[in-house]
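Bumping my old thread because nobody answered last time. Still need a sequence for this structure:
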């Protein structure tokens, strides 16, 4: 599917997480995939700050929307780390999507986003069945 990814990690975060979901989907529908088209990108957490920069050492600590200071004092959200989210070495992509075609001709669309906060940051699925009803 996707080759060697960011910083030598096989496939990056998208493939590492998606493989488990693909196994579940394959089991759920009982069919084998015959074709996959997948893309991933880094659109949110990218920048030109120095590699290895800690938030506390950055001149923008009190104004950066991702710093622990701003998240704690102004957004009432918990910080997810002390490293700069906009440094050149942030690693993984923040989104990925795949279209999987199965042996019957049915296809499944799949997306992941890795920058959601609070209630939006949860896993789940939506399956439309024969008559358009759904569950999961």
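Sorry it took so long. Here it is:
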């Amino acid at each position: 599917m996707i080759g060697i990814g960011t910083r030598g990690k096989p496939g990056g975060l998208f493939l590492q997480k998606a493989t488990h979901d693909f196994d579940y989907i394959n089991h759920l529908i009982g069919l084998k995939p015959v074709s996959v088209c997948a893309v991933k990108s880094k659109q949110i957490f990218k920048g030109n700050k120095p590699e290895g920069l800690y938030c506390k050492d950055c001149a923008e600590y009190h104004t950066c929307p991702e710093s622990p200071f701003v998240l704690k004092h102004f957004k009432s959200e918990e910080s997810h780390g002390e490293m700069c989210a906009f440094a050149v070495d942030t690693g993984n992509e923040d989104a990925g999507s795949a279209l999987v075609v199965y042996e019957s001709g049915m296809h499944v669309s799949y997306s992941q986003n890795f920058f959601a906060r609070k209630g939006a940051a949860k896993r789940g699925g939506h399956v439309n069945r024969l008559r358009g009803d759904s569950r999961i």
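The chain has two helices and five strands. Let me know if any region looks off to you.
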